[in-house]
Amino acid sequence: MHVESRKNSISIASEIIGHKWTAEILYALSLSPQRFCQIQRSAGGVNPRTLSARLDDLEKEKIISRQPMQDCAGDQYQLEKKGLDLLPAIRAMTDWGKK
To answer: At what angle do helices 3-17 and 81-98 cross, to 10 degrees?
Structure first.
């Protein structure tokens, strides 16, 4: 791979997962589909405005999807194919953070 292509690829990935709270949100969703409040608790208490912005960004990038709940008000978020593809990087970050 050409150096310039690698740099662009790294920049793209960093732009997406480099925002504060994004890795925590993706990790939370790797455990199971979750509602907004569940993600907020799982991600460590991210403020609602920031969480909403991150979820919107991830949805626009087709990394997650939002599904209306059938039995109650609200939506459930889950990882899409692009989000699942990020899991090895998120898990590596988790493992590295433990060391």
So the answer is: 80
User: Is residue 28 within 8 Å of residue 39, measured between CB atoms?
Assistant: yes
Terminal-residue alpha carbon distance, the chain = 31
Q: 3-98 domain in CATH 1.10.10.10? A: yes
pTM: predicted TM-score of the whole model, two decimal places = 0.83
3-state secondary structure of 30: helix
Contact 40, 48 (CB under 8 A): yes
Angle between helices 22-31 and 81-98 (to 10 degrees): 110
Instruction: State the DSSP string of 35-50.
Output: EHHHHHHHTT---HHH
Element (H, E) at 68: strand 64-68
What are the sequence ranges of the domains in the chain?
Answer: 3-98
Query: Do strands 34-35 and 75-79 pair parallel, antiparallel, or not at all (unpaired)?
Result: antiparallel
pLDDT digits (tens, 9 = 90+) for 50-60: 999 999 999 99
Rounded to the nearest 10 degrees, the angle between the axes of helix 3-17 and helix 22-31 is: 80
